[in-house]
Amino acid sequence: MKAVLDESRANASPGDASPGNPSIAKKNRFLHNVKRDAWLYLLLLLPFAYILIFKYAPIYGVIMAFQDYNIFAGISGSEWVGLDVFRFIFGQDSFYRALKNTLVLNVYDLIAGFPAPIILAILLHEVRMARLKKITQTVLYLPHFLSWVIIGGMVYLMFSNGGMVNTFLASLGAGKIEFLSQKIPWLVTYISVGVWQHIGWGTIIYLAAMTGINKELYEASDIDGCTRLRKIWHITLPGIKSTINILLILQIGRMVSIGFDRPFVMGNSLVSDYSDVISTFVYRVGISSGDFSQATAVGLFQSVVGLILLLAANYIAKKLGEDGIW
């Protein structure tokens, strides 16, 4: 028997799948896994195709930032101008005003909007009545699904000079507040409405993180006689610290990016010095004027600076001993 096995091993080719040939064994194992989970891999095709078509394919269009792009000549036929488009953009005062407004509004959003869902999630986590908790969550989530066009109409009806709030103040004998036409009132309105719109959606993430906290920790704290504030400080917050770190890093990475709809809908000519941001600047000088090279160059600038901020925030978090994105 031993002689037969020795002869079989001697005649075996190097490519045979055997413990002595790990590459072939690994390949066969991969094919086996693909065959076993074929339907799961098939389900991945749709999101994979979406990422390829809508995320990676448009990267080719970045070339327009370095061209005097002509919509009729296309990318291949447009004249190459190098960094001239960037020099032109960086030479405009309106660009720096838009950049400053973008940073200012995002910083205010970070200060007011980032802690709000954390506080709300903790309050909801402490609610013991399940029915009240569900109703409250549903009411708070609803604004996230409203279009900013609808929210803008609501803001105008409530905070304009003849709106509900000023009408109520007038009935009390108080003076009207220019919510939508003066800098400070407009900023307060802009930030407050943004927090109201996003707070419910952010709460979902933190409540989901809280479900992963070991319940025995709360039971042990009850035995030790800890108050609710003690449990929040020593159990709940440490339990969601990694989630807070990751979301904070991502938020910092978006400091030079801002949505178009919110400042466009809530802004007006009276507060354009404060509401004109990068996205409205791109719309005005790039899309409306048909200068797609400028629009692409500003978008590329945002992406590069956003990536630098993201990497810097992640690096600082890791240096401080906190959890990063990777």
Strand content: under 5%
User: What is the helical fraction, as a range of percent?
Assistant: over 70%
pLDDT averaged residue by residue: 85
Distance between the termini: 54 Å
Could you outline the blueprint of secondary structure elements for this entry?
Layout: H1 2-11, H2 22-36, H3 38-43, H4 45-56, E1 67-68, H5 74-77, E2 79-80, H6 84-90, H7 93-113, H8 115-126, H9 130-141, H10 148-159, H11 164-171, H12 183-210, H13 215-223, H14 228-239, H15 241-253, H16 261-266, H17 272-275, H18 278-287, H19 292-319
Antiparallel strand pairs: 1-2
Could you characterize what this model shows?
This protein is mostly helical and 326 residues long. 70% of the residues lie in helices and 1% in strands. The protein folds into two domains: 17-77, no CATH class; 85-319, MetI-like fold (Orthogonal Bundle), CATH 1.10.3720. Strands 1-2 form a two-stranded antiparallel ribbon. Helix 15 (241-253) runs antiparallel to helix 19 and helix 18 runs antiparallel to helix 19. The longest helix has 28 residues, at 183-210. The model is unreliable at 1-18 (pLDDT under 50).
